[in-house]
From TrEMBL:
Residues 43-235 form the FAD-binding PCMH-type domain. It holds the Pfam family FAD_binding_4. Keywords: FAD, Flavoprotein, Oxidoreductase. It comes from Trichocladium antarcticum. It comes from the Eukaryota. Belongs to the oxygen-dependent FAD-linked oxidoreductase family. SUPFAM superfamilies: FAD-binding/transporter-associated domain-like. The lineage of its organism: Eukaryota, Fungi, Dikarya, Ascomycota, Pezizomycotina. One of its GO terms (molecular function) is FAD binding. This is Glucooligosaccharide oxidase.
Amino acid sequence: MGNHPSALQRCIGAVGGSRVGFAGFPTDPGYLAAWVQPYNLNIQITPAAVVRPRTTEDVSAIVRCAVANNVKVQAKSGGHSYGNHGLGGEDGAVAIDMTNMQQFSMDNNTWQATIGAGTFLGKVSERLHIAGGRAIAHGVCPNIGIGGHATIVRAHRTPPLQPPSTRLLPQGGLGPMSRMWGSCLDHVVEVEVVTADGKIQRASNEENADLFWALRGAASGFGVVTEFVVRTHPEPDSVVQYEYTLAGGSHADMAPLFSAWLDLMRDPKLDRRFGSLFLMVPTGALIAGTFYGTKDEFEATDIPDRFPGDARRHLVLTDWRGSVAHEVEKLALFAASLPAPFYSKSLALRREDVPSPSNVRDLFGWVDTQEKGTPLWFIIFDSSGGAVGDVPSNATSFAHRDKILYYQSYFVALPLTTTSRDFVNNFHTRLMAANPGAFGTYPGYVDPDLPDAPRQYWGANLPRLQEIKRMWDPADVFHNPQSVRPMPERSGGQG
């Protein structure tokens, strides 16, 4: 801890006692590599401390140390924030790394599971299966932490570093089964959380209901969740995984297929057992989908008939666990979770925001004419809607219940170039110009350059979030550059 430890270091050191690996500080050799480990290497951050608690009592004491020393706090679960928000998003915060919070239990009467906030989704899936063949809605990347994923604040799609055949499915609190079961946060029925006063609280619809409302969609500004209680489902018996690839040729040639996919995704009668994405990369494009049912049930829908039925179509028949294992193996998602320098833009689209065929044709033609500055660029459209939209937009702080698609464009490069950044930004600008009513984005797809970010993340729910923030965290202890701020005290009619 150096020759002259600060008051913060002394306080955290007293909490950890003689425990090895409890906390790291900037004065420690190898601090950035061993403790900080940023995900987006384009954003360099040095926290005041990184702490790895083992108990909720540890978390409580760490928060009290930070408050006593006027230092901000952020929790880090999987650490996949595009803005490195789990490390504070800017220098000088205490990052509470939840990696040791791995508790798990299953109530076989209610089939509700208790899951530690540091658990990765791969382990969540495995433990739910062992505990009775149960499942919840979540993304497929095994290294995403449930702490951010179940609160839709920092768990995101992993930037794909592989070619189209190793594509990704939706990440964040959404996943391929979300149209059928809702988002991951819709499964949360209770949490244990440490609040800004250092107290250990329970929050649910019956206890601390306002805090519970805020945590389900904006937890980074309200506390450190240490465990979740979630409702679960029986695992589906059969799963069909669909894939349609296009390689070579111009992107303009792919526009009709993308428009056909858009027509399917905005169909209000689309079978909720089906989730899908469209991925555009330098060498082509891919449509991937997952249907939770049998092959006969899948083919009884009109989904297979909406696309060409040639050799470019591929079906994989499996069960729930097999589908998870298939994605992990095929998509090489462990490798894709490696830190990299990248830049991204995103947008949430309602049914009425879906671009027309003429707009798609113009946009894809424009892509063909542009210098990209890197071979690692990706444009992705993920499906949503279905059960996610059954929940009122004000039932939780997550506001984007009316969205049926989420788009992202990004590039990975070392170094990041103006050419690549301009390509991503200009694609985003053109997409928005074609859909002038579109506004807002999924709060899991953090964009450090997003203007008016809190309103774009939380929409009409932002004022209530600011009021709850003022009640639970008036000093803004739980803070990153885009988290919810307390509502200012009213004066002169201003709120």
